[in-house]
Amino acid sequence: MSEYKRNYVNGEWVESKSGETFDVENPANPSEVVARYQSSTEDDATEAVESAAAVAAEWAATPGPERGRILRSAGVLLDDRKDELTDLLVAEEGKAYAEASGEVQRAIDIFHYFAGKAADLGGTIKCSSTLNQNLYTVKEPVGVAALITPWNYPIAIPAWKLAPALATGNTVVLKPASLAPGVALELARALEEAGLPDGVLNVVTGSGSTIGSEFIEHDAVDAVSFTGSSEVGEIVYERATKGGKRVQTELGGKNPTVVASSADPAEAATIVANGGFGTTGQSCTACSRAIVHESVYDEFVDELVDRAKSVDIGPGAEHEMGPQVSQGERDSTLKYIEIAEGEGATLVAGGGVPAGAKVESGYFVEPTVFVDVSPDMRIAQEEVFGPVVAVIEVSDFDGGLAVANDVSYGLSASIVTDDHAEANRFVDEAEAGVVKVNEKTTGLELHVPFGGFKRSSSETWREQGDAGLDFYTIEKTVYDSY
């Protein structure tokens, strides 16, 4: 075991009141314990919320440029530690090194981006209908924000929730996912060293049902931002809104790439493979359905199978695709593969656990491709969250668009086409919050809104960019007569 990690509450690194801990294992080598964390209690969560509430007014009154200076300094510290943070992310989550390094860089970029935004926060000036009166708006922080984040992007997602919350003057309580909490605690360490006042950020590790419940229901919490599964997110939304809180949820996906008749099959296969097998398929925007025109279907399948079979699988520190994050996640993926075969889909690549010394002890699964998939099969309707792509054949563009939209999710969707009219129709008619043309479904810019339709989101507030600032602020209108 390399480290013993404590909670960060009211500016101090403290143990849980329970006196209990849990271990995080390396998913590429489960016998290796990466670090030990606090199994926190409801009382720990309550103390965190009360610490945030106690300093909320003081932090809200801190000038925006000063808040931005702290975020910028923290970003510099994260940049100085980029290699160390990347190693920790790979060890806990299993992600390939290049992907992990890119994720850490994204967190750094997010801190710098919102550092600049903190100095520009303001309202609007309007023309009054009354003489001798100034009429304008100001933006104020919501108050205490509770952030509940997932394991699949364990530093990027906490960063893109945390940075705008702090930039706009909110205090924060954060519960990172228990499978990979280390890099979120390192965000707190960087902010502490950058001069963030005590109590403004509090990070508590442990059970979501315990910590998350208290964060969601405590009267002092004003806003809740959750990223995770649709099933849990819908419960979070119901409970938080019942308490009158502002709520933002980003949830699951069943993301399609439509391959049109004009597409180059090799190019399309590369786009689908990158979107479906990248991050071991453990991304809410991962491509899990390739909806392919019959005229290019056979060639596309051959190309996609070649790419699936060529993926270099092994520990993330040295290989192209790492393990799934846990045995439970791998078992779930293997179960969906079994279900797909039982429903009549044809397995043409992968479908099992890879062989070899470098993968024998970890939670590895092969990149998997199914054909002969009908749109009503579970493999075409339910989120798998592993490197599995279902290929569905269609006879025309309208049929492909209909299949793309015929799911309960609507997070990301893409089309590969050389037909400009088809591209424009897809942009207009795809039921997804992110739509891409000749691009993979994964990958997001940090300065534009991100969120989904249908069960992929609460459809309330978007994340990232100016939309991320909107969630954490409330507007006041001022009538100033003189």
Sequence-ordered SSE layout with sheet pairings:
Blueprint: E1 3-4, E2 7-9, E3 12-14, E4 21-26, E5 29-38, H1 42-54, H2 56-61, H3 64-80, H4 82-93, H5 97-118, E6 125-126, E7 133-141, E8 144-148, H6 156-167, E9 171-175, H7 182-194, E10 201-203, H8 208-217, E11 223-227, H9 230-242, E12 246-250, E13 255-259, H10 265-277, E14 287-293, H11 297-310, H12 327-342, E15 346-349, E16 368-371, H13 378-381, E17 388-394, H14 397-405, E18 409-410, E19 412-416, H15 420-429, E20 434-437, E21 453-454, H16 465-471, E22 473-481
Parallel strand pairs: 1-5, 8-9, 8-11, 9-10, 11-12, 13-14, 13-19, 14-17, 16-17, 19-20
Antiparallel strand pairs: 2-3, 4-5, 6-7, 7-22, 15-16, 18-21
Helix pairs in contact: 1-8, 3-5, 3-7, 4-5, 5-6, 10-11
- Rg computed from alpha carbons, rounded to a whole number of angstroms: 23 Å
- Please indicate the percent range of residues in DSSP E strands (runs of 2 or more): 15-25%
Query: CATH topology of the largest domain, what is it called?
Result: Aldehyde Dehydrogenase, Chain A, domain 1
CATH architecture of the largest domain: 3-Layer(aba) Sandwich
Question: Which spans have pLDDT < 50 for at least 5 consecutive residues?
Answer: none
Side-by-side strand order of the widest sheet: 15-16-17-14-13-19-20
Separate helix tally = 16
**Shape annotation:** globular
Q: What's the CATH H-level homologous superfamily of the largest domain? A: Aldehyde Dehydrogenase, Chain A, domain 1
Count the strands? 22
Distance between the termini: 67 Å
CATH top level of the largest domain is Alpha Beta
Give the % helix.
25-40%
